């Protein structure tokens, strides 16, 4: 049987652009059909913006690669119309176990908060993730949305002009020229677009190698995340075991710096390592093996005129804490509504500078967290190893040491505190977690969930406060989402949005981040917040 | 927020000091390093106050600065 990653999902096909006398100009070209590029294209297309995706390949990625998807990205996928198939296919896990040397030192439960539509995390191979996104893009296309996927289209050069971007694209039929008003570069950590534009990408390189293997086996391991520090089967190093759908287990083994990558990848070297870990009698089949090193770095700016960088092309983090693909989805979630408003002439181009401002903040937070995890997992000095081991020794016996154990921190969305788009925080007693800049916490509403009600435009969430059904400002319509105590059987809505206030009005951005909040409706105040949130202030 | 106490506060200082050294008796350098690290973590958790901890770290790194 062919594996999904062996089947071309968007094979090369000749398009009219290649036979045009003059270069055809598109609204948006997305370069790269990975998770981030596909999410960007879907986001734009479902809002009616014309978008073409170029990718030099024609298949989903090979191997599991990005494997953990966190709650906020799943909520973004709900807005993009493809969260459910991912969650249905994915493996939900809550329990993690930490091993040190030959013993289990402790286990933990993620204890996800009740009253959210989505779990804290799912595990899903990146190829399934991409496949569901391609399916969604195809469904939009079939419904007449202006989205086009071009496989076998490799961008060979880029000319980023003041009023347009011109791309030379190589195909099996030869090269052609195409233009776009805007380009979103989602072409990965090695971003050819970034290199062609001669842009920086500075940061810290971690001198370590990790062997990743996808192993198919019928195993009795529970659906948990197991992490080993200095285990007998990989002395002085770390190891990770994670369950994925279809009885595929993801194993990451730290190898150290001074190794021969090609040798280590050979099955005759990989299989004994896995047997030492899984037991001599374990029956398994190797689906995919790779060796990765990693960097923590980012571009100085993500916006370069009409070219916008997103995902690994803009920033790279260590894999601990699942902040790669997850943060890439938060990039496009932040970018696409802004780009949409700019393209529609409803916001100034400078709104796009807030993409830099907000997502650089997100990238720095992710780099900080994943660097700290990496420094714990792979201590860089004798003393840091001594303290790391002391923490692990103590964690077996004393609860106080467990929060210091860092095998990757849960990926949580960035709060855009201090963003230039934020408006008033005028709700006395309002909860900290839903302050301006914060992503809206979900809440159950009888037979549904709040985030699904917010949709993908500006929303005016009112809780026990009267307000008009729509507010028009700068050609942008904000729709009221009216809630009352009756809609809140669990009390979660009040806990997450009212705190000690008796009523509230929230202006919520299209990416479901809070723009401003008040105790009552004031037309002038709301309009001022919309002005701020669209980069006009 | 507290302040680092740099005045004598431990009873029977000679007994205490002998006890501290006895903890390391007969151990290798690696074993002693591990014990010291565990001890630091245990004591720091007991103190808990980040301001005091910060002052203690500064005083340890460069005596006289706090």
Please explain how this structure is put together:
The complex is a heterodimer of chains A (537) and B (66). Chain A is α+β, with helices and mostly antiparallel strands and 537 residues long. Chain A has helices at 35-46, 71-79, 83-89, 126-142, 192-196, 261-265, 267-278, 325-343, 353-377, 382-395, 450-454, 492-497, 523-533; strands spanning 24-31, 51-54, 68-70, 91-92, 95-100, 103-109, 121-123, 147-150, 154-160, 165-171, 174-185, 202-217, 225-229, 238-244, 248-254, 284-298, 303-304, 307-309, 315-316, 444-445, 448-449, 459-463, 470-473, 476-483, 504-508, 514-518. Among the domains of chain A are: 4-88 and 120-202 and 296-367, FAD/NAD(P)-binding domain, CATH 3.50.50; 432-533, Glutaredoxin. Helices cover 27% and strands 28% of the residues of chain A. In chain A, the strands form five sheets. In chain A, strands 1, 2, 8, 9, 10, 11, 17 and 18 form an eight-stranded mixed beta sheet that branches. Chain A has an eight-stranded mixed beta sheet with strand order 6-5-13-14-15-12-16-19. In chain A, strand 17 (303-304) and strand 18 form a beta hairpin. The longest helix of chain A has 25 residues, at 353-377. With 66 residues, chain B is mostly helical. Helices cover 64% and strands 0% of the residues of chain B. Chain B is built from three helices and no strands. Chain B has helices spanning 13-23, 29-47, 50-61. The longest helix of chain B has 19 residues, at 29-47. The chains are: A alpha+beta (537), B mainly alpha (66). The A-B interface holds A 386-387, 389-391, 393-394, 398, 400-401, 404 and B 33-34, 37-38, 40-42, 45. Chain B: This is DUF2783 domain-containing protein. Chain B: InterPro entries: DUF2783. Chain A: Its cofactor is FAD. Chain A: This is FAD-dependent oxidoreductase.
């Amino acid at each position: 049987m062919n594996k999904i990653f062996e089947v071309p999902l968007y094979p090369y096909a000749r398009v009219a652009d290649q036979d045009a006398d003059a270069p055809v100009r598109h609204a948006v070209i997305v370069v790269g059909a990975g998770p981030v590029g596909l999410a960007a294209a879907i986001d734009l297309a479902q809002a009616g913006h014309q978008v073409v995706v170029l990718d030099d390949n024609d298949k989903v990625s090979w191997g599991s690669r990005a494997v953990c998807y966190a709650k906020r990205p799943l909520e973004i996928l709900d807005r993009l119309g493809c969260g459910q198939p991912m969650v249905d296919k994915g493996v939900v896990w809550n329990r993690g176990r930490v091993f040190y040397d030959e013993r289990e030192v402790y286990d933990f439960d993620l204890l996800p908060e009740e009253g959210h539509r989505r779990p804290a995390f799912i595990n899903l191979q990146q190829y399934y993730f991409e496949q569901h996104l391609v399916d969604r893009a195809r469904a939009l296309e079939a419904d007449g949305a202006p989205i086009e996927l071009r496989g076998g289209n490799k961008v060979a050069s880029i000319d980023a002009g003041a009023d347009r971007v011109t791309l030379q694209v190589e195909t099996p039929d030869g090269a052609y020229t195409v233009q776009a008003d805007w380009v979103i570069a989602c072409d990965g950590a090695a971003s050819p677009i970034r290199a062609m534009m001669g842009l920086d990408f500075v940061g810290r390189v971690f001198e370590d190698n990790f062997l990743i293997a996808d192993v198919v086996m019928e195993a009795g391991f529970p659906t948990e995340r197991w992490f080993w520090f200095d285990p007998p089967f990989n002395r002085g190093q770390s190891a990770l075991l994670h369950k994925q759908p279809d009885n595929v287990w993801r194993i990451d083994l730290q190898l150290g710096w001074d190794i021969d990558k090609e040798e280590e990848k050979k099955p005759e070297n990989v299989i004994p390592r896995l047997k030492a870990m899984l037991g001599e009698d374990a029956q398994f089949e190797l689906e995919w093996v790779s060796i990765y090193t990693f960097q923590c770095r980012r571009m100085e700016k993500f916006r370069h005129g009409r070219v916008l960088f997103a995902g690994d092309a803009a920033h790279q983090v260590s894999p601990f804490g699942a902040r790669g693909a997850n943060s890439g989805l938060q990039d496009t979630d932040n970018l696409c509504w802004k780009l949409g408003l700019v393209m529609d002439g409803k916001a100034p181009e400078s709104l796009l500078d807030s993409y830099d401002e907000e997502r650089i903040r997100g990238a720095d937070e992710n780099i900080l967290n994943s660097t700290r995890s990496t420094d714990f997992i792979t201590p860089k000095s004798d003393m840091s190893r001594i303290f790391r081991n002391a923490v692990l020794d103590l964690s077996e016996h004393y609860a106080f040491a467990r929060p210091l154990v860092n095998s990757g921190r849960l990926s949580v969305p960035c709060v855009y505190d201090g963003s230039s788009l934020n408006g008033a925080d005028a709700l006395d007693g309002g909860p900290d977690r839903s302050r301006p800049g914060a992503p809206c916490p979900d809440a159950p509403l009888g037979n549904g969930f709040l985030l699904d009600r917010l949709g993908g435009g500006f929303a005016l969430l009112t809780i026990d406060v009267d307000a008009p059904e729509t507010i028009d400002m700068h050609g942008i319509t904000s729709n009221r989402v009216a809630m009352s105590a009756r809609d809140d059987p669990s009390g979660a809505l009040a806990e997450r949005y009212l705190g000690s206030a008796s009523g509230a009005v929230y202006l919520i951005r299209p990416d479901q981040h809070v723009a401003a909040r008040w105790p009552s409706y004031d037309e002038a105040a709301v309009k001022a917040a919309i002005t701020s949130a669209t980069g006009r202030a | 927020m507290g302040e680092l106490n740099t005045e004598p506060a431990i009873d029977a200082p000679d007994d205490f000091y002998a006890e501290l050294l006895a903890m390391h008796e007969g151990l290798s350098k690696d074993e002693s390093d591990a014990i010291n690290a565990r001890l630091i973590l245990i004591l720091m958790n007991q103190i808990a106050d980040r301001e005091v901890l910060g002052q203690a770290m500064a005083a340890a790194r460069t005596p006289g600065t706090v």
